[in-house]
């Protein structure tokens, strides 16, 4: 409060509020003049309509923003929870490397070399660190160049894929998917859903669903891929990919593919081979080098360009890889033993072959040199002696005398695994190639090749069917001839006489004993090959003749074990069995069959410098043509025919089949020293006088007295040439008379008769 009076100022009350600053500063006599406040801009005035529009826009924006951040928060929360869920479900990496539901079968030849695979093979675990650096780079360059930068998904890659799809007239998510390697691994793992046989018709259908595209699939892939990126390192994700990717030709993973195509490990492949393997990822079956090597090499050249562009290869390295493209290993290039491998699989229990859950190793009897020889022989004859456009097929079997199958050709052209195998699955009439079993029965009863048989008109009364009169293929008769000549010239009437003389039951017993397990005809046409059999059966039966008269069960499996195990689970189930005919009878029969090639119907099968024995066979209307025979080292059988059972044109067993047989055996015996056949040359005999039946002549159903057996002695020389008595009598007008045909039995007999003629 101020004071007053006595020199003091006037009493006044203190001011409750301060004076303006300017006044204070003025009273104090100094200071900067006060700054005038800036005039406020007047608020912009909108018209009514504009104001409504602006207000509405602001409201909409606030609503959109409010919804957006809330939805984003919800999506992020759901995504995070989904990623966490998948993360918690992911197993250790080691459990994801081999994702096959079934195992595989790897086949080794007689020398222990791999020649065939069945099922999906898994070559063993490899990692991103120990795989070839070229292969590592090829995969990254081809599939995901930003693999080490993204977090499981690549928005740039997806955008680029959508642009490409739209530019090519497809839907945005149809075709190119822009998937990262991590997303591809998510597909390979089927987003963690395991294969359940009860829910899927097949594993292929399950995998097809796992690889399916679409928006929903892409949405599910994102959290799974992100979970893997959290759970595993980049190296581990790439390791899963390298082990699980399907690489064509039944190979699962890059190690199996490298072994399958190049015969080496995935850590040994170079730039060209790596590029070819990486190129398979786009379309494994289409680009598999075993399907089309040229196409696979062209795809590899594209991959090499990507590797060069991204700095993984220098220009010089890329040029070198392009100039020397990868090629298949000899085993993969040959693709040998396809039909053989199928047969081994079929004859092995399913739980150890086609349905195995383990990786199985089977050591077999196959000889890849002989397999190649057989394939080349078939190709040579068809290329040089069969008219272009012919649909005729052929099959070949080569085996040792103990039944070990060394080569098998199931058709004139290489076919995919599981294709029709004409060597084992085709049951066809055997024609005259069956005749040796009738003569084998005679030899076992004590006859020799020097004994005689009548080649004269013959009529047999068949109860219930009437008279049956067989004919020879040349419509001629030769009178009294030796058994050796009868077989060499493949004469039908003598074969029927022999069969009727020794008894059809004896002929069936010999044929069954030698392994012909197919149903055999009941009538007299049995001797003429009216019954059906497979080439493998027939070849095995001829092997029984070569080995001295014991039965043979053809086999291809030597031993079976699990991969990595030493214990043998299964051994050979075939080989030499019980004796069927005497060794002497087999030696006599071998001699008779050698005459077929020397001066009979099989002269086109002669092998220069080698003794060989065999028999031709041609069925009615030339629907089937056969040649089977052997040397001292190998047995081989050849069949020709049409798959639709239509007649061949101008083909008999002594023609193209004999030539294929010769070409096969010439190649098979390269490098071997000729060995003599185990045959016995008979003592010559004089023919009986006249034309009447006698105890030493096999005529209408009369069994002659058994001649005393002779001890087996290796032949010192050839049997002397004998004069042949030719039958000049008249040919009856009714020389072909099947008799009354009625009922099912009659029809069967008629089929037997019509199917048995030929050489």
TrEMBL record:
Domain of life: Bacteria
Limits of the Penicillin-binding protein transpeptidase domain: 395-633
Family stated for the protein in its record: In the C-terminal section; belongs to the transpeptidase family. In the N-terminal section; belongs to the glycosyltransferase 51 family.
Keyword flag Transferase: yes
Domain spans labelled Glycosyl transferase family: 126-307
Gene Ontology molecular function, alphabetical: carboxypeptidase activity; penicillin binding; peptidoglycan glycosyltransferase activity
Transmembrane segments: 67-87
Disordered: region residues: 1-43, 688-715
Biased composition (Basic residues): 33-43
Pathways involved: Cell wall biogenesis; peptidoglycan biosynthesis
Keywords: Carboxypeptidase, Glycosyltransferase, Hydrolase, Membrane, Multifunctional enzyme, Protease, Transferase, Transmembrane, Transmembrane helix
Catalytic activity: [GlcNAc-(1->4)-Mur2Ac(oyl-L-Ala-gamma-D-Glu-L-Lys-D-Ala-D-Ala)](n)-di-trans,octa-cis-undecaprenyl diphosphate + beta-D-GlcNAc-(1->4)-Mur2Ac(oyl-L-Ala-gamma-D-Glu-L-Lys-D-Ala-D-Ala)-di-trans,octa-cis-undecaprenyl diphosphate = [GlcNAc-(1->4)-Mur2Ac(oyl-L-Ala-gamma-D-Glu-L-Lys-D-Ala-D-Ala)](n+1)-di-trans,octa-cis-undecaprenyl diphosphate + di-trans,octa-cis-undecaprenyl diphosphate + H(+)
EC numbers on record: 2.4.99.28
GO cellular component, one term: outer membrane-bounded periplasmic space
GO BP: peptidoglycan biosynthetic process; proteolysis
Protein source organism: Pseudotabrizicola algicola
UniProt name for this protein: peptidoglycan glycosyltransferase
